[in-house]
Amino acid sequence: MGRVKLELPExxxxxxxxxxxxxDINYGxxxxxxxxxxxxxxxxxxxxxxxxxxxADIDGVGLIMTDVVIVYRSEGFYADVLKIxxxxxxxxxVGCDFVFKLSNxxxxxxxxxxxxGIVFFDYEHRKIVEVPDKFRVLF
Length: 139
Description:
Elements: E1 14-19, H1 33-50, E2 62-72, E3 81-89, E4 95-104, E5 110-122, E6 127-129, H2 133-138
Antiparallel strand pairs: 1-3, 2-5, 3-4, 4-5, 5-6
């Protein structure tokens, strides 16, 4: 089986830092795969807040994650400070991708890269909707 490859964009429009918590460490003594998803979720919430949105209110609609790809590049350990960079890509009619690069702030080593596919969702009417204009204009 071939390895999953995830190309990163040339630039990222946002970065934030998170500290690896003891709860993020697995039985192997390093950052667990499930915690990567949690950390990029935190970064996405911060990213959206930075541009005046929340996951539940992006110009009146929310978002739903449709898929995720995580590619591990090196280990992360307890108390590491991770720099998480985020870019929006592949903006389509009803969704887009968020692309993440996680790096150890001290060493610069890339720990992981990830992509989450999202669609915009009207929770009141329980249906997928088009990308809100305010979001489209920003990205």
